[in-house]
Every structure is written in structure tokens, then in C-alpha cells.
Amino acid sequence: GWQHRFPATAYAMMCTRPLLDWVVRDAILAGGRIEVEHGAEAVELAGDRSRVTGVRVRDAGGGEPRLLEADLVVDATGRASRLGHWLAALGLPAVEQDVVDAGIGYATRMFKAPEGTHGNFPAVQVAADPLTRQPGRFGVVYPQEGGRWLVTLTSTRGAPLPTDEDEFTGYAKVLRHSIVSDLMSVAEPISPIFQSHSGANRRMYPERMPQWPEGLLILGDSLAAFNPVHGHG
Ligand SMILES: Cc1cc2nc3c(=O)[nH]c(=O)nc-3n(C[C@H](O)[C@H](O)[C@H](O)COP(=O)(O)OP(=O)(O)OC[C@H]3O[C@@H](n4cnc5c(N)ncnc54)[C@H](O)[C@@H]3O)c2cc1C
């Protein structure tokens, strides 16, 4: 069934990932104490199984990796962290981890919002019905900076994600309410459709390792990444 209507008590600020990254980066660099290695990719840990002494990085232009020495290395490379491989290269065993995967997938497309909707347009969400015993399908329209709407259509395992324009439009129409489809019909698509299947819950247990090298920390999604439905980031 449907929930009764009640006065809004939650307030969300929505923006694209590049804007969020930019604002955070700007604020951090304003302090003047941090130096960024632009375009550098971490490829390997330096040190041995008892102590990490730095990280080898490769520059965007290619070439041989160079060593950045460090007293403390923090792996914050996110869900796709290669830390397990890096620890194995130091001779350490695999880190235990739990993975719980609901098979969630996202198909996302950016739209130009119609005139007159900029400003306080609300976030729109149509949730799946957990009682149907069918794969879950849900959809959202999230206003973004620059007069744009981010439309994301989501499925759990067994409901194939839309890949092209016709499928995207059709998928929005079979949600439990037509509002996502109605809003899409008055907006102009301005991006391709992007798919993401990186929604599994994964937690690593470094504390269960028989030995952990000094000078190494793990943070954020590298350590524990959850189903995006939980908005855990
Ligand atoms: C589809 C989706 C939707 C989500 N929606 C929400 C939401 O609505 N609300 C919410 O709170 N959370 C959400 N999350 C979760 C949130 O995005 C993450 O929890 C959060 O971004 C984790 O931050 P992080 O800094 O640990 O990793 P990340 O944000 O993944 O940052 C890791 C960074 O490391 C860089 N990197 C990776 N490898 C290397 C390397 N070898 N060398 C150098 N740099 C490297 C990457 O380019 C990236 O910039 C969502 C996640 C997904 C997948």
C-alpha cells in the first residue's frame, strides 16, 4: 500500500559527484599544508610484511613507477581497492572478507530539467514493492546543479537493467507510479545511459590478520563498501 502523507522533516542537498569532489578538494587545499600528486596512480606498496615505508606511483603520462616514501600510508582507493594484491606482494596472506550481494544494478541518465523547475524542486523516489516477491525495480529523479535532473532506474537480481533509450523509457513506465516516467517525458536527455553493477556489500577484516604491517591504514570503501541504497558514503 501507500504511506500516508506527512509534512517533510528531511532536507537533502543534491549535486553531482564531480562538484562534491571539487568542493572538498578546494576546502582541503585552502589550508596550504597538503600537496597533491596530480594524476598519480598508486601501483604498489613499498616495504615488507612488517612495515610499509611508502607507495610506488605511476604518473598519468606513463613511464616507470617512482617511490613516494611515507611514515604512514592510507589506502582510500575505494571499492575497487587493490590492497589485497599489494599485501600479497609483501608476502602477507589474504585479508578475510564478507560479501553480501543483492545483485543491485543502476542505469543512470542525465536530463536537462524543464524551465520553471530550477530551485527547490524535490527529490522524487518511487520505491519497489517488497511484497510482490518479484525482482525489485525502483526509480528516482534527483535535481542537480546546473538545471539538470539525474534519473536513475534500479533493479535487484533478476530484473534486467535498461541499456537503450526505448528500454529506459519502458522501465520507468512499469514502476509502481508513473511520476518518474512523466517527469522524463518533459525533460531533455543530455547524456548516454550509464550502468553500474558495483552494489555488493563488502567488508574486510584486517583485524583478523595474523600480522599487519606498521604504517598502513585502510579507510572508507576500501575497508567496507555497502549497497548504495543505504547512502552510507
Ligand atoms: C552507484 C552508487 C551510488 C551511491 N550513492 C550514494 C549516496 O547517495 N549517498 C552516499 O552517502 N553514498 C553513496 N554511495 C557510496 C559512496 O559513493 C561511497 O561510500 C564513497 O564514495 C566512498 O568514499 P571513498 O573516499 O572511500 O572512496 P571513493 O569515493 O571511491 O574514492 C576513491 C578514490 O580513489 C581513487 N583511486 C582508486 N584507485 C586508485 C589508485 N590506484 N591510485 C590513485 N587513486 C586511486 C579513485 O579514482 C577515487 O577518486 C554510492 C555508491 C555507488 C557505487
TrEMBL record:
Coiled-coil portions = none
Q: Which SUPFAM superfamilies does its entry note?
A: FAD/NAD(P)-binding domain
Transmembrane spans: none
InterPro entries according to UniProt: FAD/NAD-bd_sf
* Protein name (Swiss-Prot/TrEMBL): Epoxidase
Q: What is the lineage of its organism?
A: Bacteria, Bacillati, Actinomycetota, Actinomycetes, Kitasatosporales
Q: What's the encoding gene here?
A: epo
